[in-house]
Predict the structure.
Amino acid sequence: MKGFCLRGSWVKAGLLTIILFFVAFSSAAEDSSSDVIETNIEAGQMIPNTEPLEIPAPSNVKTVLEPPKEIVGMPLKEGQIIELNKTLKSVIEENDKLHEEKEKLDEELKSLRGQRQIEINRINAMTEEMRRVRTQTEGIVDLNQRYSRQLVDLQVTIKDKEQQYQMKIKELEDRVAKEEPVQPENQLAYEKIDADGEKSRENIVAIVDQFNKESERLRQDTARVHYNMGNIYFHKGDYSKAAAEYKKVLKLMPSDAAAHFNLAFVQGEFLGDPVAALKHYKEYIFLNPQAPDRLIVEQKILQMELKVRSMINSPLDDKKFDQRF
């Protein structure tokens, strides 16, 4: 049935053509037969007889063909037309049913194809999402491993810097202790004392200057290490440790504007401390008035001020807010 279904109009046209041809042929045959019989009767060659004639069957015919029976008082051709009409009607109805079933099957097939395409698209989307998540997961794992290695390296660096700092202090103390005054015994001794004292003072100043330079360099290096560690903790999502590292930076370098900004952002956005965030945002603007992101920071300051006001106006947070001051 798939791929083949007669159209009703084609079947009707074909069957009607057959019926008309059959009716015309039957009428012609009957008229011809009647004319022959009447002619023979008039010529005396045939006498009508109502008795059935027994005609011997030919030797080569196994059965005797019976003439078609009439249908309830109707001539033969009318009965055939009725039968053909019934057959035609039945065929047309069956064809219409088949056509309707085919249309239903076509619709179901179309729906199934659409559902199949939707399912394929969903599977493709899920596959792509799984691939993306797997890639992100691998990237996060790799990033965590890299951050972990950097943390270990930075911790070792901080320890080395602190040891160098302590060694420099001890070295300074030892060198200052060696510069002992000379007991004067005469004028030459006084002159020697003056000369030696001046030299000692110059040496001490030089030592102190060198120490200050080394100390400043170590202080900056240590602050930079803590700043980097704060950034690493921030990217790992450990915001408390990140804030602690930024505070260490500000303890060593109070004028570090970047550390003020990072600390303000962490405390305001992740640690729920708008008071501290407001303070460090303002410090950032004070230390870096020409900052390219000044407008953004000023918006953050406004947001933090609104949060602080809401804390003051909230009876639930009054006690907590008062403890901050």
